[in-house]
Each structure stands twice: as C-alpha cells, then as structure tokens.
Specification:
With 496 residues, this protein is an alpha/beta fold. Helices cover 38% and strands 19% of the residues. It has two domains: 6-255 and 461-480, 3-Layer(aba) Sandwich (Aldehyde Dehydrogenase, Chain A, domain 1), CATH 3.40.605.10; 260-443, Aldehyde Dehydrogenase, Chain A, domain 2. The structure holds nicotinamide-adenine-dinucleotide (NAD). Nicotinamide-adenine-dinucleotide (NAD) binds next to helix 8 and helix 9.
Amino acid sequence: MPADTTTYKIFIENEWHDSASGEHFETRNPFTGEVWARIPKCGPEDVNVAVEAAHKALRTGAWPNLTATQRGHLLRRLGDLINRDADKLAAIEVRDNGKLFAEMSAQLRYLPQWLYFYAGLADKINGSVPPIDKPKMFTYTRREPVGVVAAITPWNSPLMLTAWKLAPALAAGCTLVVKPSEYTSASMLEFAALVEEAGFPPGVVNVVTGFGADVGDPLIRHPKINKVAFTGGESTGSRIVEASAQTFKRLTLELGGKSAQIVFADADLSSAVSGAVSGIFAATGQTCIAGSRLLVHESILKEFTESFIELARSARMGDPMLPTTQVGPVTTRPQYERILSYIDIAKNEGAQCLLGGVAAQRPECGNGWFIEPTVFGNVDNSMRIAQEEVFGPVVSIIPFRDDEDAYRIANDTDYGLAAGIWTNSFERAFEAPKRLQAGTVWVNTYRAVSFLAPFGGIKNSGIGRESGTEGINQYLETKTVWLSWGETPANPFVMR
Ligand code: NAD
C-alpha cells in the first residue's frame, strides 16, 4: 500500500469515529489500479448509532427549533463552502471513479445551485387553507418533515446525487444518514467536514460507509428510517421496495435506463452526431441517462453511422485529470468485466461490431480499466444488448422506418428514464415528447440537467422526482388540522 494512503473516519453527531469493528476497506484509483485510501468498514451497529443520532436530532436540540429561514442560511453557507472546495472535491471524485476532471469539476461547481435553490425554498413551504364546507369550522394544512432520511448513492456522480437528496431534505427540516457507494466514499466524508464547518447541529447529517449488505440493508430496514432516497441499480431498488414494505417507508428511487436517441431524417446531422456521441461516450457511458440505443431513420443510416463512427474513433482516451482527455477508464474492475461480457453477448447475438469491442491497449491508458468506444450495428431491439443496461461505452444502432416505428422501438423497454430526439420539424418536436415513455425528453440536446427541472423515471427507472419545486415534496408530509367552535352535536355516533 502506498505510504501516502489516506485513512478516513465516519461522521456521526458531528464527530469522527472508526467503525465499531475498527476494520477498513481499500479504495482504488481506476486509472492506476492502485489503492489510495482506506475507508471504515461499517456494519449494523454503526448504522444503528447513526440512525439513533439522526432520530434524536429530528426532535430535540437545535435543529427542530431553527426557523425555516435559518435552515436556509445554513444551506447557503454549505453551498459557499462547496464552491470554495469544488476542485479539491472533484479531484477526489476522479481518484475514486476515474471520470474526467473536466466533468467532475463542472459538476462540483454547479452543485451549490441545489443548495442555494432549496435554501430559498425552505421558508416558502406553505400549507393551505381549504374553504371548508362545514359551519363553524376552520381547517388548515401543515407541511412537516417526513423524518429521518436514508440517502443511498452510487459511484458515478457521488456528490451531485447526494446533493439532490440532501438539499431538499434539509430544507424540509429532515435529518439524514448518508451511505455513499463503497467505490466512492471519500468525497462524501470530505463533504461531511463541510457540513460541520457550515454549522449544522450534531446529528442532522451523518455518514456511514461500507457495503450494501452490511450497511445499506440494515439502513433500509431500520424502523426509525422514515424515508429512503436511493440512486442506483434496478435490482437494489427492488430490494429496497420489498424491505421498506415492513414499515411503509416513503421512497424516492432513481434507477437505471436504456434510453433511446432518435435521429429523424430531417435532423441537423452534425448536431445529432455530436449529441449522440456525447450521450453515450461522455462519462464513459457510466450514466443512468446514457443514450445507449441510437434509433436512426433508414434513409440516413449509412451517412449517420459513418459520421458517428468517425467522431467516436477520434475520442482521446487516457488520464482523466488531463484536460485533453475525452474518455476515461471504467470505475471498477467488476464493471470493466461486466462491460466486456456484454460485448461478447452482443457479438454472440449476431450484432455487428462496427467500432471497438475490446479493452483499450493504448499506451496512454496505462494500467487503467479502459474499454474502446464500441458501436454495434445490425441490432434488433429484442437483443439483450438493446434491452439490458450495460453502463459503459457501448451503443447499439437500430434503424427505423417511420415515426410510429421509432416510438414503438423507443418504448419497447422496461426502462423509462430519458429519451432524446433530433429533428428540425416543429411538429415532431412537440409530438415525440408526448409519445415517448420517459421521465425526461430532450429535443435537439442531450444530458442537460438543472436544479430547476424535475428529474426521475417511469416504469423500471424509478419512483418520484428529484430537483425543482417537486423535489421538496418528496421530503414533506401533509398534516390536516381542524378547529371547531360549533355546538356539541346532538348525536355523537354520526360523522360530523
Ligand atoms: P448499486 O445499486 O449496486 O449500488 C447503489 C448503492 O446501493 C451503493 O451505495 C450500494 O452500496 C447500495 N446497496 C447495494 N446493495 C444494497 C442493499 N441490499 N440495500 C441497500 N443498499 C444497497 O448501483 P451502482 O452500481 O453503484 O450504480 C449504478 C446504477 O445506478 C446503474 O443502474 C445506474 O443506472 C444507476 N443510476 C441511476 C441514476 C438516476 O438518477 N436514475 C443516476 C446514476 C446512477
């Protein structure tokens, strides 16, 4: 193990602890394959301490006595601190997940907007006054925090996806136990130090680290967790639904995708080629919104495919910290092997490999886990390569005959996270979003997200929405209050 390995601690009640077992696990740099940090290996005992701390902070101490405006001040301060440390946090994320520094740095610089937006929203959470239809009664509603939130995140955009949960949860007055991915825990522990510096009271945000079975599972089953906010794979999501049924936990689930990008014959081809390349090869295809099915009108199939391959072939691979690099390594060794196995599956299914299809052997890739940008043609939408999420730099090109055919193929998937269309037709720009079964539809653009725009999936891609004003509703319960100054009813056994 290198001498400069960092050893981290977990964060509970604004204090830094070792795990109950005192054990650690190693985290590796995907570009070099080397261990660079040791992360506490927590278990159910640590989960219990963290949940108890969050439960206590919800009802007692400083947090429940802050006004909503004061909660907003704290969130704003946290946003400023993230802004101050954005490049440092981005470099840590690159060391953990191998994504481009250019991408992670842009994410970290944009991330404070979620803190600022929900800071502003904190004191605009209004109840309502229904004009009640009964004499001498007054009714109003209160919006109250849902309670203790378990926030569980994946490795591809660790802090961004945490902020999407943490900012609205804190604005609503909830407390949290955060469990980052076992592959990318370091940035969350650095982030926790900023939570403390911002002045959040003890127990409001707690971080436990470790594996899904040891930490995630006890967290989603804990009776004092009121809500689970999860981003990750479909199978983990379905396990969360089952586990949460015992105590009827509230859920927000952001799961996988198999998103279609549809290129109509009237599209601006150079924009469509560039957008389609960015949709699948940016972030090495390791995004839930990867446009991994490229539906191209048959009349432009040859021309589009040639230009697409030419641009994909020119992608510069290598050190993710270099500003010139365009495609970095795959984040984890198991993921690297999984992508290669999907490439084999596609070849065996009869798909035609038009580009890549192998691990990258370029000198600039060193010992990293790199896979060449891979393009398959001759794909039928029923093939596994077109139906299952690969989560890597692999795209399937599927021709279509007419608009109906395009919508049918695009919707023929269990997922429903996102879709993109490329067209110059005004009519299609309005018609396609209605016809496509997806939580987000981009027209002549792709991969745009904002703190103002709700994000989430339909079908197997998830439940609920994050971001925008809708995002905060996921962290609130409505309480209805009735006041009466009427006479005592003559018959107490009849409903009022
Ligand atoms: P994953 O489901 O394997 O892990 C996600 C998190 O869940 C990790 O922290 C993991 O430790 C935890 N976990 C694992 N088993 C658990 C259990 N039994 N109980 C509770 N927690 C458990 O996903 P991943 O491989 O880290 O991430 C990739 C997946 O995330 C892809 O499917 C991708 O599409 C999805 N994703 C979705 C979005 C979105 O917004 N829709 C965004 C990014 C990633």
